[in-house]
């Protein structure tokens, strides 16, 4: 099915993606699922009928939702920077069907202005900071909740996200903190939240050295943390949904032996592939080797990309049997962030093609190769 696939390319598996959502639905039965589309916007179309909500963090992400005709009721408009013209346009289109996050007092004022201009009460979630530039502290949220009746906004609840690849103990502490904060808001201001939108930041095992995780047990223990939550729970996830549903395909275009080291040069590179937690290509991700020749002795290879920098090393000490020009290397668990975090413009190389493998196994081209030389020069 991928024998003639032009490389480099991403392949995102729709069947695996929907199976992933089914697994999460089964083991998180009381929660709504919100897909953080920054993880991989190419999956939005496939997920439109599978998830409850999409976290949309920029005007560009919103335009993607527009083109795909995502229902306003599925949109949570987030982002640390909300530009006035964009907000007024989006509120004019989505009105009180979408949910809007508030990350600062100035965003509160902006959304209030937009609500008054449209004659609507907009549903909002107040983002609680985890100690960085995002969101507001508890005192600021308390002041907003206290004057909520003066606002043209309906405060639905709290949004909280502190990072990715978190250990369960940190998640447990956050759950206790969030429940306590909701109780404080009820006790101090008579405010009963309708929802908690929480990004748990569950970990993804990208490397063969990572300890295996029993996800069924993980989600069971997670659900127990929120059994006594006094409101609805929305789980905002990107990596945990998408990572396992995508692959990155690249071909070996040259091999060489230099000072006793074996090198494979591939037609892709670090401008296309990004594993969270990788350090100088020392960790070994999950890779399949599609060979063009027969059996041969296994040797250790350093796999390098096609960029003119010594940093372009995808993996060191990769065991390969009979590596040869024309072989394909398939990097697994590339469904989240690589397609959007790559340093695409470096060296003016083409951006990879993007394919989706549909439920029937066929490959559909979602984006052809894109030349970047015109972006990097005067027209």
TrEMBL record:
Residues 18-243 form the Orn/DAP/Arg decarboxylase 2 N-terminal domain. The keyword Translocase does not apply. GO terms for molecular function: diaminopimelate decarboxylase activity. Its cofactor is pyridoxal 5'-phosphate. Coiled coil: none annotated. Keywords: Pyridoxal phosphate. It comes from the Bacteria. GO terms for biological process: lysine biosynthetic process via diaminopimelate. PANTHER family: DIAMINOPIMELATE DECARBOXYLASE, GROUP IV DECARBOXYLASE. This is Diaminopimelate decarboxylase. It comes from Candidatus Borkfalkia ceftriaxoniphila. The lineage of its organism: Bacteria, Bacillati, Bacillota, Clostridia, Christensenellales.
